[in-house]
Amino acid sequence: MLQRNAPSSIVKRLPVYLRILDNLIKKDVEIISSRTLSNQTGFTAEQIRKDLAYFGAFGTRGTGYNTVYLREKLLKIIGLDKETNVIVLGSGHLGNAFGRYNIIKNPYIRVVGMFDVDLEVIGKRVEDLHIEHFDKMSEVIKEHNVKVAVLTVPAEQAQYVVDELVKCGITAILNFAPTKLNVPKNVHVHNTDLTIELQSLIYYSSSEEEGIN
After folding, report:
1. pLDDT of 28-38, one tens digit each?
2. Are the C-beta atoms of residues 162 and 130 closer than 8 Å to each other?
């Protein structure tokens, strides 16, 4: 049985490795070294070897990693060896963009439901999905055994929505709402605040202009 208590810093790097392996396999590259992975990720070769070694021995000293074999192992470690059903809460511009991208581009994710309370958007289509009313959420979660949800609702609604998600058995939430969520210990939340990301990036442009060291 795979362990699910790996450090979050490692877990967040695994999909980066997976994306690179996907691209290399498309180019028929069979072997990759940790040094090459380092060049493509920005992580040190030592860090990459430690990350992968945390889960087992996947490479050959002096040779590197077989791309297909390592990809299969990473898929299993992350939990992407089978398609993961996901729902999206909130059908504004961000929710729709996220849903559309993952429906079209993400081979590991199946978006099975998109929900909102705005009567003006309910019934509209995002690719092959119709946006449904929030009241239908529990039915979809049960029908598709959904454990992962994406939250793009306004901050003032976020906690209520999360409480309902937890009641329905959701255990992993990607939160785009700019607020702290309170959840039980068995529920994992990854917070992504695009405004903060942009503002922190601006620091680097302004510091260069002002000559700040």
Report:
1. 999 999 999 99
2. no
Could you tell me if residue 208 is inside a domain?
no
Q: Does 206 map to a domain?
A: no
- Neighbour count for residue 33 (Cβ, 10 Å): 16
The answer on 73 and 91 residing in a single domain is no
Q: Which residues of 97-117 are buried (b: 16+ CB within 10 A; e: fewer)?
A: ebbbebbeeeebbebbbbbbe
Summarize pLDDT for 173-212 with one digit per residue, the tens: 999 998 999 999 999 999 988 888 888 888 877 655 555 5
H or E stretch covering 101: helix 93-105
Virtual torsion, Cα 150, 153, 156, 161, nearest 10 deg: -50
Residue pair 115/134 in contact (Cβ under 8 Å)? The answer is: yes
Write down the H helix ranges in 106-152. Answer: 137-144
> What does the pLDDT read at residue 183?
95
* Assigned domain for 210 exists: no
Whether residue 93 is found in the same domain as residue 172: yes
